[in-house]
Design a protein that fits this description.
The protein folds into 2 domains: about 1-40; about 55-190, no CATH class. A hairpin with a 2-residue loop joins strand 5 and strand 6. Strands 1, 2, 3, 5, 6 and 8 form a 6-stranded antiparallel β-sheet that branches. The chain has a 3-stranded antiparallel β-sheet with strand order 7-4-9, with no helix packed on it. The protein is elongated. The relative contact order is 0.16. The chain has helices spanning about 1-10, 15-40; strands at about 55-60, 95-100, 105-115, 125-130, 140, 145, 150-155, 165-170, 185-190. The chain is an alpha+beta fold.
């Protein structure tokens, strides 16, 4: 019945007024609907947890006096001596050769950098080991001969800048000519 009364009340108005009242009524209905929607809310809480762990990272760096490393700045680099011999020309730059009575050695410095995060450690211990045994040649870092067991190279190296080490390969004159390749695994442990 109400609708009928409203319609009857509109009959006496001119066409322009009717349109205006209908438009106002429609706008009021839309606004009321928007207000009703805007009032519906919901809240929630997300709890975020994490455990921060101290960590260190190791990278190999090219030493300015050494062979340019392939993969420098990463933890998996290659120091390539190129073709070496006791008496022939060594083509690679920055390879040092020494010849003894029954063998010859080639060596080159390289850098090793260890960085730390979220740690109060003042320094680190560095160890190295051959990835597999070599019954013929001798592999040395600094003055430490390497085996397949970790050998300690030092225990108070500082973080954040490359520390120079020298990789030396000693080849006996009795060894057969041919390609050599050896993985040397490094382990840095925070103190």
């Amino acid at each position: 019945m109400r609708t009928h009364v409203a319609t009857t009340a509109l009959r006496g108005l001119g066409h322009g007024y009717k349109a205006l009242i209908i438009a106002a009524f429609a706008a009021l209905m839309v606004a009321s609907a928007n207000d009703a929607r805007a009032q519906a809310t919901s809240t929630g809480t997300l709890t975020v947890t994490a455990t921060v762990e101290s960590s260190i990272g190791l990278t190999f760096e090219t030493d300015a006096s050494g062979v340019s490393l392939t993969g420098a700045g990463t933890s998996a680099a290659t120091l390539a001596y190129g073709t070496v011999s006791a008496y022939g020309t060594i083509a690679a730059a920055n390879v040092t050769r020494s010849v003894a009575a029954s063998d010859f050695s080639v060596s080159s410095p390289f850098g090793l950098k260890v960085i730390k995060a979220n740690s109060s450690s003042a320094n680190y211990t560095l160890q190295a080991a051959l990835g597999s045994a070599d019954a013929t040649n001798t592999w040395t870092i600094n003055a430490t001969a390497l085996t397949t067991s970790n050998q300690t190279l030092g225990s108070t190296y500082g973080y954040g800048s490359a520390v120079s080490h020298t990789m030396k390969l000693t080849v006996p004159f009795s060894a057969a000519a041919g390609a050599l390749s050896k993985n040397v695994n490094f382990t840095a442990t925070s103190n």
